[in-house]
Amino acid sequence: MTAVSVIRAEGLTVEFGVRRLLILGRKAGAVQAVSNVDLVVERGETLAVVGESGCGKSTLGRALLRSVPITAGRLEFMGRDITRLEGEPLRALRRQFQMVFQDPYASLNPKMKIFDTLAEPLRVHTTDNAATIRDRVMEMMAAAGLAPDFADRYPHAFSGGQRQRVAIARAVILRPDFVVADEPLSALDVSLQLQILTLFRQLKAQFALTYLFISHDLARVFGFADRIAVMYLGKIVEIGTAREIYAAPVHPYTRALIAAAPSPDPARSTARDALTLQGELPSPVNPPKGCRFHTRCPMAMPVCAEVEPPMLGIGGRHAVACHLVTRP
Amino acid sequence: MTGPVLEVQNLSVTFQGDSGPVHAVRDLSLSVAPGEVIGIVGESGSGKSVTMMSVLRLLDTRRTEITAGRLAVDGRSLLGLSGRALQDMRGPVVSYIFQDPLTALNPLLTVGRQITEGLRRHRGLSRAEARAWAMDLLRRVGIPAPELRINQLPHQMSGGMRQRVMIAIALACDPKLLIADEPTTALDVTVQAEIVRLVQSIQAERGMAMVWVTHDLALLARLADRVVVMYAGRIIEDAPARTLYAAPGHPYTAGLLASTSRIDDPFTEQAPIPGTPPDPRVIAPGCSFAPRCSRALPRCLNELPDLVAQGQDHRLACFNPLPGART
Lengths: 328, 327
Prior knowledge:
The complex is a heterodimer of chains A (328) and B (327). With 328 residues, chain A is of the alpha/beta class. Chain A has ten helices and twelve strands. Chain A has an eight-stranded mixed sheet with strand order 6-7-8-3-9-10-12-11, sandwiched between helices. Chain B is α/β, with parallel strands linked by helices. Chain B is built from eleven helices and 13 strands. Chain B has helices at 48-55, 83-89, 101-104, 111-123, 127-140, 146-149, 159-171, 189-206, 217-221, 241-246, 251-259, and strands spanning 6-17, 20-32, 37-41, 64-67, 70-73, 76-77, 94-97, 177-181, 209-214, 226-231, 234-240, 308-309, 315-316. The longest helix of chain B has 18 residues, at 189-206. Chain B is globular, with a radius of gyration of 21 Å. The interface between A and B is large, with 45 and 45 residues.
């Protein structure tokens, strides 16, 4: 394969300081929101990152866009090391990176007309004249399913679904090389979720985009993502193609997530109760030793509390970090 | 006693908004039998929460107009009841669990105090008796170390634990009807699964009736005996769960079902419902769903379809229902 990966992360770690003493402001400890993550995103693929709140999936997405400082490890974008890039070179890179956020009510400037919201990235990052900008904005609005007369209106006139279309159009208008979408569906109603997911799919086909799609909803991403990475307490615990993960999930956490997803079929929905988790997510300030999941794992063995399981390939593009695989 | 636990006839709820009246609920009739579990499903603004909140008048009465032919819980009419009389019914007769336990709980009172409040008020228990009872309840809703938790404040607990506390409070006075309004929407899926299972087991054990309000049809599949679908302030379909999921009659129900994520069949491409829900300030003369409906007939735009019985146990408001649904 000759193509260069869009993103290549090795040992990526993001730490946030925790201050305990208010007056002295001393750093009392650190939370590793993302801990030693290896990840590759290929051009043109959709990689979904799935996990529950606090697993570090949003921080991972931001770290890949250099929006939060990287504590350790290495990050490459199109083969170039950008781990410590600063200043003007980093700003220039922003044009190729875009993000879509969860809450379309908070992510759009309420004082900007839709036209200006979409035109701003072009004004900042290109030398296009006003006429070209107008054409590109109107073309983008059409692609995003927004009626032309929306251009002169303000965000407050729109519903959540329409605002999310605007936010996506703004992210895509510069034809970025890499788009991170952070829970872009979770603030929307069910019928709109599918509309927006369909829009993501159409725009990807039209503009050859590469997505990192962050979601807590595994059921929703199976049919949308090419590959899925499952995160737990700052670590990727399983990764593979959507079909590999669906057909043969290996990590007990992945299996629990699948078992917990409700299915709209009264006959089938109670059949998969066997694998449910006890307890709640441990504090990331003091993560469990060994495998971080062992405190909630229904299949934990003594070794799991002692040794952190390495990520091992198990055929195809499927890899998992679990002692059930290392010691069958 | 076989009368319904909840009877709602011709309920309408209108808010005085800044830009004119908002017709949140329009001419809604519904009844819930003792021990029955009903799911009310609809999207934001469909009126599903407002309907249930108007039962015990939990809405701001200064800006809300509630009219109904009959509104009764456990055979007692609630229309014209004083605030005091309504308060007496909150707890022993009807209890609520809401989406966000952090706003529903008092941040300044220990969870023990919040659970015992209802017990002391409605059951006249002494402080010690109420505390012992509260401890049992906390244990029943799966809270480890209740003797420690009972003295904690809500912010010292996780979201899942707080929701368990809410459930303990709601169950404290053994209500005849439990209204759960999106109680798991703010929770992670694994915690959601636990909470659903917990509420289900308590419902089965006590035989209380339950109304579960949600936007998620998938969640209701494992919970509800009967599912009521709302759109733009009206019930558009009401059917036993098995019928509704297997052969929905209303094109909106079918569209919602087709939009729901399917963990059992995630790779089949789904077709979204086009368009957006209507503005609740504008009442169209016809069916509110007609502008988005692929089966709409000319009359659907001008004439409002009544909610009528389609055979036993099935009500439908549609001039051109899906063929499978005709019973």
